Amino acid sequence: MYDSVxxxxxxSDGAAEALEHAIGAATAYDADLHIISIVDRRVVLAAxxxxxxxxxxxxxxxxxxxxxxxxxxxxxxxxxATTATTEGVPHxxxxxxxxxxxxxxxxxxxxxxxxxxxxxxxxxxxxxVVKESERPVVVVNIG
Length: 143
Hints:
The protein is an alpha/beta fold. The protein contains six helices and five strands, in the order E-H-E-H-H-E-H-E-H-H-E. The protein has helices at 13-29, 41-46, 52-75, 90-100, 115-120, 125-132; strands at residues 4-8, 32-40, 81-88, 105-110, 137-141. A five-stranded parallel sheet has the order 3-2-1-4-5, sandwiched between helices. Strand 1 (4-8), helix 1 and strand 2 form a beta-alpha-beta unit. Helix 4 (90-100) packs across helix 6.
């Protein structure tokens, strides 16, 4: 049913928890696992001019570390993951990667916000991916 599973990560505990679901899907369907992280271009652009490259480098290092960490954890479950980092607007880059790599299933974590906090955070990356994806999306509620 699914030949490939995509897990975007921002390095958070929530993304690490979503890894278990991505590993489960990859194992159940004998699917390839892809793990990506996106350097948010908006954060780089918002930095002071003389700090842009430092911010970009730090964010890039964080993104690389995040995919390497989850890839190593996947390897502990005998899953070899394809990893990538890119720069852009996170939800757009996730959807672009899914399209370019013919991904069958996306697995994303959320923070499980409720009530007022949820209304204040409309427009999150996960929500935008769910709304715009033409592919199945599993949302792991991290609370």
